[in-house]
Amino acid sequence: MSTKYLSMKIISEIISWYTLNKRDLPWRNTKNPYKIWLSEIILQQTRVAQGMEYFHRFVEKFPTIEDLANANEEEVLKLWQGLGYYSRARNLHATAKIIQNQHQGIFPKTHNEIKQLKGIGDYTAAAIASFAYNLPHACVDGNVYRVLSRVFGINTPIDSTEGKKEFFKLANELLPPKNAATYNQAMMEFGAMQCKPKNPDCKQCFIHEHCQAFATNTIDLLPVKAKKTKQRNRYFYYLFLEDEKQNTIINKRMEKDIWQHLYEFPLLEFESNVELEKIMESQTFLEINKNADYTIKNTSKQYKHILSHQVIYATFLHIKTKKIGSNKNNIKINTLQNYAVSRLMHMYMQDVKLIE
């Protein structure tokens, strides 16, 4: 049996399996490029179960590109709250404006045009092009990398330039030109449901007799990654102020850092855990509490919040004072729920009953 024929047989079997076993997901029941694009952006770094809820929220709140384009950024970020990687939401909003203003509200219809849009890379462009327009472009995501590396026994690191080119070339060679949408969905579904990252049920897999990793007992070694993500530790101390009139202070993060454009209590960051005295001696603390009688009512537990490249260790100081000085960032405590905040801030506010 020729290698090409065997490859086509494997793909045919995966597509047949997909037809019978695919999950009923809302973005699979539409050819609307806006909804497909929205689902793809939400599902980046997000599990399907969690992403489903956000997808429905966005479609209900912003049923068209025009609706999303006309929204203000804070509305979009608030709706995105809890998903993380907030640059996705900012890019989504910016791209909606571009489509509305430069493309008359019509989503681009070629792979090249789609790829030019902000926040859309090779994979997302291929997904939209194939799912919405059935254009012959292969999607290569983590699931596809895993399936191809195991089935064909490829040891080239998937995070190397060489590896990306090799897998992209193979995925496109396997793609049936007239059935790109089903092929892409089938490959990703097979990786998500059958060829799982850990403990896949290989003996029950219908293509295990063609799988190189199964034959060589290297399932757990594939795919190969060359680089290991380095994480750094950061130590945050938040000042939650509360005065007699139930005012507090929140600031908007504007730096090019995590949680850009989200709101938070005044923040002090240190290179390690510090004692309370050092916080009280800091310039930020002194400026906020100058000319005011204050009491540190409570110091929270330390929250550990893990991000992709860093770990945040956060402590919240609840400070009661008679009056918070005039500040453009003063708000009523009972309006905190109206502001988009990080998951970390949200957890604390829930724990101390500031929000439900």
Can you put this structure into words, describing what you see?
It is a single chain. With 356 residues, the chain is α+β, with helices and mostly antiparallel strands. 43% of the residues lie in helices and 13% in strands. Strands 1, 5, 6, 7 and 8 form a five-stranded mixed β-sheet that branches. A two-stranded antiparallel ribbon has the order 2-9. Helix 9 (142-151) crosses helix 11 (180-193). It is elongated, with a radius of gyration of 25 Å.
List keywords for this structure.
single chain; 356 residues; alpha+beta; two-stranded antiparallel sheet
Mean pLDDT: 94
Tally the helices: what do you get?
Answer: 15
The helix content is: 40-55%
Beta-strand fraction estimate: 5-15%
Structural class: alpha+beta
Q: Kindly state the number of beta strands.
A: 9
Name the shape in a single word. elongated
Distance between the termini: 63 Å
